[in-house]
Amino acid sequence: MSFDVDVTVRRGGRDLHVAFAAGGGVTILFGPSGAGKTSTLDMIAGLLRPAAGHVRVAERTLFDHAAGIDLPPERRRAGYVFQDARLFPHRRVRANLLYGARSDARLAEVAATLDIAPLLGRWPRSLSGGEARRVAIGRALLADPDFLLLDEPLSSLDADRREEATRAIERVRDAAGLPILLVTHDAAEADRLGDRVVRVG
Ligand SMILES: Nc1ncnc2c1ncn2[C@@H]1O[C@H](COP(=O)(O)OP(=O)(O)OP(=O)(O)O)[C@@H](O)[C@H]1O
């Protein structure tokens, strides 16, 4: 199982419970605004502590309330791409990409996969939304994660940029072979990218 998740948390004045077990490839978390999709990614990444339940990814237990296991975020080996790209504004694209990387050995390969090689010398403020997101995905990949968490990677992009970003994610899915959990509330996006869909809310 890639993701084996069963978590409960009190959020926004109500109890949120999300449970799913998923195989490899891309698993979509699909549901309306406020349903708890981002909270679920935060619990898997270790940024929000569930009140109960467990989180296992690729057979590794990251959290288990009953067993008293709660790995800190830096030991979970998650590549988390937030809804806003959150690049470091004072570092060029190349330095952003290499921020969590142990070496630059895979820089060229990842830059090619995401079609961002021409951007390496640019400053984040000069990038389009789609470019910034692809850089954020590249940064996550270069940190050598065990799995990827992508929070609405295509939202607020225009049609052309959306297509570019979708293709980049498809290439990552096919090349990296990492389990990916992707949040969206767009049914067409869920259909195209997902190997399976988990409904939240
Ligand atoms: N920091 C927080 N503290 C308390 N409640 C929060 C916090 N962040 C979100 N919530 C609440 O938790 C619930 C789930 O929010 P969450 O962001 O996980 O939903 P979502 O499905 O990702 O929504 P969206 O699609 O709008 O991003 C909502 O009711 C929200 O108001």
TrEMBL record:
Keyword terms of this UniProt record: ATP-binding, Nucleotide-binding
Keyword Transferase attributed: no
UniProt KW ATP-binding keyword: yes
Domain ABC transporter, chain residue ranges per copy: 2-200
Coiled-coil ranges (or none): none
Pfam families: ABC_tran (PF00005)
Top-level lineage group: Bacteria
Gene3D superfamilies noted in UniProt: P-loop containing nucleotide triphosphate hydrolases
A single GO molecular function term of this UniProt record: ATP binding
Name of the protein: ATP-binding cassette domain-containing protein
Organism: Sphingomonas corticis
